[in-house]
Structures are given as C-alpha cells and as structure tokens.
Amino acid sequence: MLPVTEAGSLNQSSQDCEAPFADGRLPLMIVYISVLIIGLPANLLTVFLTWLQVRRKNVLGVYLWSLSLCDLTYLCTLPLWTDYIYRGHLWQWSSAACKLTGYIFFTNMYVSIFLLCCISLDRYMAVAYCLEARGMRRQRYAVLTTVTIVVMVAVVHTAVFTMREGAVT
C-alpha cells in the first residue's frame, strides 16, 4: 500500500491508497455471467448455422465459423475470469491454468481481429470487384488464410508459457 499525501500539504498522511477493485467487482461479474449465459447458446447456434454455409462452399462462412469457434473458446474461460474477480483479483487455480487462460484470451483477441479484417476484405472484394474477385474468392483460400492466422498468432503467443511469474519486463 502506498502512502498518500494530502493536497497542498508537505506532511505524509497515514491514509492508504488501495485500488478500488471491490467497487467494480459486482458489475463486472454480472457482465461476465450475462455474456456467458447469452453468448454460449448464441455462439453454439452460430457455429451450427455457419457450418451449413461452409458445407455450401461459402467463403464468408469459413471466416464466420472460425470467428464463432474463437468466441466459444473465449466463453469457456469466462467462469475462471469470474472466479478471479469474485476472489478480489486473486488467482486460486494453478499457474498452468493462469497461463493457459491468458494465452486463450490474447490469442483469441488477435485471431478475432484478423478474422474481422478478413471478413471486411472479403466483403469489399465481393462488392467492389464482384467479377474480378470471383476467381480469388475460393473456400480453399479462406481456409488456408484462417489456418495461417491461427497458427501464426498461436506461435507468437507461446511466449506466455515461458515467462517467469511476476515478471514485469
């Protein structure tokens, strides 16, 4: 805890400065639980419906299906994050579980960003260059692009597993 000095005074006060974790704990837990309750069935439905599009050789379906799987993976970590918040930002699980949860969080964040970029680019190509893009917009390319994104991001984030605990550098 850090000592706080009063404004306009040179004297040290005995007041302690604490991060207000308790103030935002309940609303954050409510958000996490709500996202899990709504997100799990919604993403399961989306995975099913987008899989039907993938089977019909729809390029956009590949990106949307991958994005839904990415979201589902993140949703599976929300109970651990909720428990972490509930315990006042104290991790009660193993170090490996902490690293895996962090790995999933950051990997999914970046994979989702790249997939959204792919969706935007695909939509742009389909609208602005509909005739020229017909040959380039193939499901095989979408799958290859998605796999490349996932592998590259996953490899880059493996550094999480080799970091020392408590290392800030």
TrEMBL record:
UniProt record similarity statement: Belongs to the G-protein coupled receptor 1 family.
GO term, biological process aspect, one: negative regulation of G2/M transition of mitotic cell cycle
A cellular component annotation (GO) from this entry: plasma membrane
Domain G-protein coupled receptors family 1 profile, chain residue ranges per copy: 42-169
Single GO MF annotation: G protein-coupled receptor activity
Native organism: Nothobranchius rachovii (bluefin notho)
Keywords: Cell membrane, Disulfide bond, G-protein coupled receptor, Glycoprotein, Membrane, Receptor, Transducer, Transmembrane, Transmembrane helix
TM regions (residue ranges): 29-52, 59-81, 101-121, 141-163
Pfam families with a match to the protein in the record: 7tm_1
Chief location category: membrane
Protein name as it appears in the record: G protein-coupled receptor 132
Top-level taxon in the UniProt lineage: Eukaryota
Membrane topology: Multi-pass membrane protein
InterPro entries named among the record's database cross-references: GPCR_Rhodpsn (IPR000276), GPCR_Rhodpsn_7TM (IPR017452)
Keyword Metal-binding tagged: no
Locations listed in the record: Cell membrane
Annotated PROSITE patterns: G_PROTEIN_RECEP_F1_1 (PS00237), G_PROTEIN_RECEP_F1_2 (PS50262)
